[in-house]
Amino acid sequence: MRVLTLALVSALALSGCKKVDTPDTAKMPEVAAPKLSETTIKDVTRTLSSDAFEGRAPGSAGEDKTVALMIEKFKAAGLEPGNPSSSKDGGWTQDVPLVEILAKNVSPLTINGKDGVAQSFAYGTEFVAGTYQEQAKIDVKDSDVVFVGYGINAPEKGWNDYAGVDVKGKTVLILINDPDFETAGLEGPFGGKAMTYYGRWTYKFEEAARQGAAAALIVHDTAPAAYGWNVVNSSWTGPQFLAQSKDGGADQTKLNGWVQKDVAAKIMAAGGQDLSKAMVAAKQKGFKAVPLDLKAGVSFENSISKKNSRNIIGVMKGAKRPDEYVLYTGHWDHLGRCTPVDGDDICNGAIDNATGTAALVALAEAHKAAGAPDRSLIFLAVTAEES
Fold first, then answer.
1. What does DSSP assign to residue 381?
2. Which of 131, 228, 367, 373 has a Cα-to-Cα distance from 171 of 20 to 30 A?
3. pLDDT tens across 357-380, in order?
4. pLDDT tens across 310-350, in order?
5. Angle at the Cα of 292 (from 291 to 295), degrees rounded to 5?
């Protein structure tokens, strides 16, 4: 099966050409605006983000309601089950085995200097932490702290923030986004304003694990993160969902988390460094990681449970090239129940991502009205994006 995205189609079309137009000069065909149902988008968004769906956490009653609704809508839009070999849910779903890990009894984050001065930071308001390891207890003790800039190792770009430093068993302090995120356009080693995967928090933790770090703490900064601390707090103080693995996450760091920017500034200052100056230095190629001569400590217990979640798949067969596929996708899940606001603990997730899930339904309806496409279309609503 071949999945053809716009990017891949473009690459195939341009392969073999001696000259490639830039996006600014390329002649793009005129395409009529699609007729999508505003009513469908509003109705499905309203339903998915209602309190009845309880924030759509994977493995919850909200998931069951979401799956049932999407199957109903996909059927009505003329789609066929996308996983017919499965007898579950009439072939409309794909099982996604997850592990749910909930950190509890989280200690303060302590930072100790050689001068004997200790700092302590509160869980939730000043830092958050969790783990990808299926361990009943996580205990990070006397862990050397190293500031590693943006925490990027990109050989193809000649960029390695870990060059010349051994962080095995240590705690790394990492900046969010890419070094050139403040660039107005798309120029720069990491595409300027267009964030690469190197800028994502998921990558930062993955690379820290590959480097052998015991703990990875991302510095939260609203502009480069594109969301406030309230989002970090809500996302990281509740259950974390991970794909089940054979080793139970043994190859991951013990601890992944975030610290407020002012907390990071205090940590850097305790290590004799200025965070603002260090952030400027980290933007430059050839940046060298900075050992801070500090010791970090934090511990917590975990509640661990295995759960099964589901992707929801609908297919519209192509008329001319049915064995070629175009994929539309959006995640249906949200945070479920999280930190209460005025007594309300349901994170409804209207924008993130009931809107995108509703758009899948509207797109399916529009394609049905337009008639069979040349290639087959896959409409895929996926789980566990938030984690």
1. E
2. 228
3. 999 999 999 999 999 899 999 999
4. 999 999 999 999 999 999 999 999 999 888 889 999 999 99
5. 110
> How many angstroms separate the CA atoms of 136 and 232, rounded?
23
User: What CATH number belongs to 2-9+38-91+317-382?
Assistant: 3.40.630.10
Helix (H) or strand (E) holding 359: helix 355-370
Mean pLDDT of the chain: 91
CA–CA distance, 149 with 196 (Å, rounded to integer): 16
H/E stretch holding 306 reads strand 290-316
Q: Taking Cα atoms as reference points, which of 163, 246, 148, 165 lies closest to residue 203?
A: 148
Q: In the 8-state DSSP scheme, what is residue 351?
A: I
Residue 257 burial (C-beta neighbours within 10 Å; 0-12, 13-18, 19+):
buried
- The answer to whether 53 and 337 are in contact (CB under 8 A) is no
Domain boundary assignment for the chain: 2-9+38-91+317-382, 101-303
Other CB atoms within a 10 A radius of the CB of residue 363 amount to: 21
Token pair of 191 as six digits: 């595409």
* Rounded-to-integer distance, Cα 76 and Cα 361, Å: 9
